[in-house]
Automatic annotation (TrEMBL):
Domain Glycosyl hydrolases family 2 sugar binding residues, every copy: 83-179
Organism listed in the record: Mucilaginibacter gossypiicola
Name of the protein: Beta-galactosidase
Molecular function GO terms recorded: hydrolase activity, hydrolyzing O-glycosyl compounds
NCBIfam families: GalB
Alphabetically ordered keywords of this record: Glycosidase, Hydrolase, Signal
Annotated GO biological process: carbohydrate metabolic process
Residue intervals of the Glycoside hydrolase family 2 catalytic domain: 294-507
Residues annotated as domain Glycoside hydrolase family: 692-793
All copies of domain DUF4982, residue ranges: 620-678
Length: 799
């Protein structure tokens, strides 16, 4: 039956009045002032336990990142060789006597993993999945007024190896404490959709499940607020059914899109008599999209390619401890490249990532699992599958389904069950779980067997979208092999590179050997990989190879490059001391590799002219010079003022090349369109290292104890030319209202710790991550190295 839409405008419904603050729910950060102990002590669950000697810290916290890289750690090289183990957290806190009549809830956004929680000695429960958000009701066990409560959390990440990438260990996401009235909106109870959208009007549907409250004479008021906080529509309904459907019409809606991520808010108020007894606000966006087997993807009716990257959840040197600014920086770097989509490989993400994607305009493929019943690592989630997969998947969809950025669910990555008939039954079961909670988005799975006749997850017939990992060679024939099906490249490329490293010549492609074990044949002794985009894993391709195919066919709706950033762990193709991945378009420290500019030239309209490599070589050496460019029909390069030729991309070329006998000096490139100069750029030979230069990505940050300024460290010669192979040990000093949080350089093999006040540069660059204190003021960062003039930068931290 078609739903009856009740459109009610905001004018009338003020009879209920707005609540005074103490009546409605309050959600506060519960991150501050925890005690931590690395090790196991079962007595720590008890109230009387003496934790005086434990370390004090604020959450989010990842203890693994504080450890030393060591190939003997049981996490193995797959997790970067960082330590794991067991850890305990405790926090003492008071709840005001005025809250005696309330419900007090604690929300953990994610704990890696096997968390167990006690409140005042009472066991609340266990949650094995390290990526899932969960809640406990503390109310029955709390003491109020001047009495202390103690919450204790045991985190067991000792069951190693349990992952193919770095997970981090601990309460690595935010924790929240909510105080609500006894009668309140249940967690994740509303589902907000936009069943009808055009540029003139949109219908917002709010479906709220209020089991247990029927017949209580309550009303539920829903209001839609625009980005100025103005109420644009309100409807009030009596709670007479378990499921309440409310519809609000928004005239001239500002649609959510990649370039204009307009957001609205839906405020729900539960009303008893004339009193608001609970309220809850959800961010939403008005948009529609569809996939077409012939034409690919459309957002709000406009054709667009999904230009995505896969991301793991670590934030490089910060480990996995969630920091909103760190995630935002990552997304800004990707946005600047033209990336418009993120696949949360291979697990539910931090809520902050989804909030940022809503706000910044990224599509998100929200992925659930890397394995089902069949394992990939000895102690991975397959051990918890039977008991937990239904609840975990349900909770993921319930938590995330209101985000406008999410356009697809993935029920799994390269799941082993695709190779046997259990792929049919489990595939159907999981799709059904998702669809029961959200039937507005397609469900896919990232399949690694591209043969439709042999792939049992595909054979389940349950997938809306066929997601293929790699197998780019069959993409052109997709419509023939998968008649009527819709395509998405769930994972692509797996090309390898080390930032700032170049091997000559550049014009042949090398693949990682097929046996999957031996390091790259003829690989470099220092475990670097050339940055000319000519090395890839054998199952993948260079960046150019796959992008050329995807861009050609409309039915190929898009792709997800493996990966946007390097991540800790999975250091294909090398063995120890390689400890982080080579797949990123951007290195672990956030410095773009050269291929970033290939994407920028293809994925954005802004003019690009990028020249590689650097210009410090041996005289007479033959050097391959590449240029990525767009918005121009030719590029001319000049070595010390003499033209070395004009190059034009022909056919499907994505770069041009000159082979040049090296001489020191200036290599300059000029791009032209119709004879007119579009851009010029140059690389210059650097002389002897002379001084350190520090550059802050943001020179003003918030004095909230969380915000970050990322300082890029480079070494310049006397003429201010950056020295491309600088690798000095740099020592940092931070004074004023900030702290040095971590250091990095983007090298995949550097075994020095990230949590340190010194670090070597790598291929000319280093990174210092500065965090504000909760007090405003100046932060001065200085960096010194033997034989060089020190550098400094001042950051203002503002209240
Ligand atoms: C894929 C896998 C990813 C990553 C990648 C490396 O097969 O889905 O998680 O391991 O290979 O190339």
């Amino acid at each position: 039956m078609r739903l009856r839409y009740l459109y009610t405008l905001c004018l009338v419904l003020f009879t209920a009045g707005f609540a005074s603050a103490q009546n409605v729910r309050k959600t506060e950060s519960f991150n501050a002032d925890w005690k931590f102990f690395l090790g196991d002590d079962t007595a720590a669950s008890q109230v009387k336990f003496d934790d005086n000697r434990w370390r004090k810290l604020d959450l989010p916290h990842d203890w693994s990142i504080e450890g030393e890289f060591d190939s003997k750690n049981p996490t193995t090289q797959a997790e970067g060789g960082l330590p794991a183990g067991i850890g305990w957290y405790r926090k003492s806190f008071m709840i005001p006597a005025s809250s005696k009549t309330k419900t007090i809830l604690i929300d953990f956004d994610g704990v890696f993993h096997n968390s167990e929680v006690w409140i005042n000695g009472h066991y609340l429960g266990k949650r094995p999945n390290g990526y899932i958000s969960f809640r406990y009701d503390l109310t029955p066990y709390l003491k109020f007024g001047a009495q202390q409560n103690v919450i204790a959390v045991r985190v067991d990440n000792s069951d190693q190896p349990n992952s193919r990438w770095y997970t981090g260990s601990g309460i690595y996401r935010n924790v929240w404490l909510t105080t609500a009235n006894k009668i309140h909106l249940p967690q994740w109870s509303s589902f907000i959709t936009t069943p009808q959208v055009d540029h003139q009007k949109a219908a917002i549907n709010i479906r709220t499940v209020l089991a247990g409250l029927v017949g209580s004479k309550l009303t539920l008021r829903a209001s839609v607020l625009d980005d100025q906080g103005k109420v644009v529509g309100t409807v009030t309904s009596s709670v007479i059914d378990t499921v309440i459907q409310q519809n609000i019409r928004v005239m001239n809606p500002k649609l959510w899109s990649i370039n204009h991520p307009n957001l609205y808010k839906v405020k729900l108020q539960l009303i008893a008599g004339n009193k608001v007894i609970d309220d809850y606000t959800t961010t939403t966006g008005i948009r529609y999209f569809n996939f077409d087997a012939d034409k690919g993807f459309r957002l709000n009716g406009e054709p667009m390619k999904i230009l995505g990257v896969c991301l793991h959840h670590d934030q490089g040197a910060l480990g996995t401890a969630v920091n909103t600014r760190a995630i935002e920086r990552q997304l800004q770097i990707l946005k600047n490249m033209g990336c418009n989509a993120i696949r949360t490989s291979h697990n539910p993400p931090a809520p902050e990532l989804l909030d940022l994607c809503d706000k910044m305009g990224f599509l998100v493929m929200d992925e659930a699992f890397d394995m089902w019943k069949k394992k990939k690592s000895k102690h991975d989630y397959h051990e918890d599958w039977d008991e937990w997969h239904v609840k975990d998947l349900q909770d993921q969809v319930l938590r995330d389904r209101n985000h406008p950025s999410i356009f697809a669910w993935s029920i799994g990555n390269e799941i082993r069950e695709q190779f046997d008939s259990t792929g049919v039954s489990i595939g159907r079961e999981l799709v059904k779980i998702v669809k029961q909670l959200d039937n507005t988005r397609p469900v896919t799975s990232a399949l690694s067997d591209a043969d439709p006749k042999k792939n049992f997850i595909y054979q389940s017939g349950a997938l809306d979208l066929v997601g293929l990992n790699y197998h780019q060679e069959v993409y052109a024939d997709f419509q023939k092999n998968y008649p009527g099906q819709k395509f998405i490249g769930t994972e692509n490329m797996s090309a390898l590179a080390t930032r700032g490293h170049y091997d000559m010549p550049s014009d042949s492609i090398r693949r990682w050997p097929k046996d999957g074990k031996t390091p790259l044949k003829d690989g470099n002794a220092d475990f670097t990989v050339s940055s000319y985009d000519n090395v890839s894993a054998y199952w993948g391709s260079t960046h150019e190879e796959t992008w050329k195919i995807i861009k050609t066919h409309d039915f190929l709706s898009g792709l997800f490059v493996w990966t946007g950033f390097d991540y800790i762990g999975e250091p294909t193709p090398y063995l120890w001391p390689a400890r982080s991945s080579y797949f990123g378009i951007v290195d672990l420290a956030g410095f773009p590799k050269d291929v970033y500019y290939m994407y920028q030239s293809e994925w954005t309209n802004k003019s690009v002219l990028h020249l590689l490599p650097h210009w410090n070589w041996k005289p007479g050496q033959l050097i391959d010079v590449w240029a990525y460019y767009n918005n121009a029909d030719e590029v001319e390069a000049f070595l010390n003022g003499k033209s070395i030729g004009v190059r034009k991309k022909t056919g499907d070329d994505l770069h041009v090349m000159w082979r040049v006998k090296y001489e020191p000096g200036v290599l300059k490139a000029v791009s032209r369109r119709n004879g007119k100069v579009v851009m010029t750029t140059q690389v210059v030979t650097a002389g002897e290292p002379y001084k350190i230069q520090l550059k802050a990505d943001r020179s003003k940050i918030k004095a909230d104890g969380k915000d970050l300024s990322y300082i890029t460290v480079s070494v310049l010669d006397k003429n201010n030319v950056p020295v491309p192979d600088a690798n000095q040990l740099v020592k940092f000093k931070v004074t004023g209202q900030g702290v040095l949080k971590a250091v990095d350089n983007g090298s995949q093999t550097d075994l020095d710790p990230f949590v340190s006040d010194q670090h070597h540069l790598f291929n000319g660059l280093g990174l210092a991550i500065i965090q504000s204190k909760a007090v405003g003021g100046k932060i001065t960062v200085t960096a010194a190295a033997d034989g060089l003039q020190a550098g400094s930068v001042v950051i203002e931290s503002l209240r």
